[in-house]
Amino acid sequence: MIFDLGKFAGNTALIAENETLTYEDLKIRAEEISGAAGGRCLIFLFCTNTVASVAGYVGFMNRGIVPLMIDADLDLDLVKNLLELYRPKFLWLPENLRENYSAYEKIYEQGGYNLLATNAETFALNEKLALLMTTSGSTGSPKFVRQSYENISANTKSIVEYLRLGENERSITNLPMNYVYGLSIINTHLHSGGSIVLTEKTLFQKEFWQALKNNFVTNLNGVPYTFEMLQRLRFFRMDLPNLKFITQAGGKLDPETHLKFAEYAAKTGKKFFVMYGAAEATARMGYLPAEKSLEKIGCMGVAIPGGRFELTGDGELIYYGENVSLGYAESGADLILGDERNKRLETGDLAKIDADGYYTIVGRKKRFLKMFGKRVNLQEVEHLVRQKFNLSEVAAAGVDDKMFVFVTAENLRDEILNYLSKKINVHPSALKIKFIAEIPKNASGKIIYSELENFYEL
Amino acid sequence: MTNLEKYDKAFIDAFNVAAEDLPNLKYQDIAAWDSVGHMSLMANIEDSFDIMMEVEDIMDFSSYAHGKEILKANYEVDIEA
Predict the structure, then answer these.
(1) A115 lies in the same domain as A191
(2) Domains identified in chain B and CATH numbers
(3) Could you tell me which chain B residue has the CA closest to the CA of A204?
(4) Are residues A358 and A402 in the same domain?
(5) Mean pLDDT by 10 residues, chain B (81 residues)
(6) What is the DSSP string of A173-206?
(7) What pTM was estimated for this model as a whole?
(8) In this complex, do A204 and B40 lie within 8 Å of one another by their Cβ atoms?
(9) Do A228 and B31 touch (CB under 8 A)?
(10) Is the Cβ pair B32, A429 closer than 8 Å?
(11) Are A209 and A63 within one domain?
(12) The domain containing residue A64 runs over which residues?
């Protein structure tokens, strides 16, 4: 069993706008939802930061039901594609989405969510398989990471250990639970008897900050872009006496921002943790101990307890640990597969190690960007645009949180922007479609990406 | 460009939406007006009107219509003028 809710029965588990649930309350609701689904099967969980979404997740995990986690706002065409490829037995989704799936029968409801039975002919599940998470947050790619019960238990325990999470910790949902970092916050807090404030509000809404203050939230978590937003909101001037620590993951924080938050933490007696991870490693692989955050600016840190890093000859960072996932699935037929990685993960990141044993990410082996914490493969982007618009000349490049797609066809700008932002689920303001007379190439016809850098508008 | 044109352009550039959809637009009505979109919108408005928005106003800026009121009341920018 992943969640031992009985252990903390009287503690507060979830705080929503209109209700507060103890661990005992959560246990009752979770068991009722998962009971309605019966036994082991695949289910699509349409994630929101609400009680019903979390209770469903907890119940399914404890009953051996495998959730495939998707953003409740995921484009309907993409969901339909996933339904065909994976053929889940049930959907657990917000009531307002039900009309999209009128062919399915509603067999249970709770807290604004419906359980729909698809009656699909399902695929066999490997006994280790616990959970399916998207590789890059919520792109339309049908590729999911297969995580095992052992993966989740090992990673949860490790994170609880290095963050020293206890019953008095309280977080607030600033990230979605279909994103591994967001989910790890739920897993770790429920593992250690702490609590989570559930809100769909964002940092730019007063209600978020009211919920944070009024509920005495102790932990705040964010991806690099969150830290830009926090600075925009003059976070350093806010009076937040209950806030004990801030964690960062989802991409490399620029050294200037790292320094500012480390200084803020030192000045206010809070802790600031820079961390490193990937969906392929369940969530977390490395962290920079808070007491080192001022000393090791720009560093990602050391391996988490129970894990180990290694650098290959060409500088690629390799991670070893119990939290290395089983592998990928690209359709339901892959769900029977066992462990394909043997606890070893090639991260695709290039790193260096300093004299004290701390790692810094210095580059990438493969061409991808981190867009708001999500990994987006540039080659895939080029492929999507080429295919959809029947173009041969396409080059995708850029920096984290800002992608440029170069095309030689002038008239397609708006269409490409619309298509791509929806397809890879990246905000349109972070995508620039740029017209260029010719894509620079070398003698052998390979795109010279370094020359495209001259066209970036940053 | 008139103030209204500048104001509209700030939204269109941030959200990739059509001008006719703007009048009734509210925060989180469309996928593009999320927190990332809001950052972009605020930057566009500050640049267009050469102002620095206060945190209270950034959080209060919850719709196309209310944004006009905020700019008029606190920044002496009259969109309808």
Answers:
(1) yes
(2) 3-75 (1.10.1200.10)
(3) B59
(4) no
(5) 95 93 93 92 96 95 96 94 75
(6) --S-TTSHHHHHHHHHHHHTT-EEE-----TTSH
(7) 0.91
(8) no
(9) no
(10) yes
(11) yes
(12) 5-363
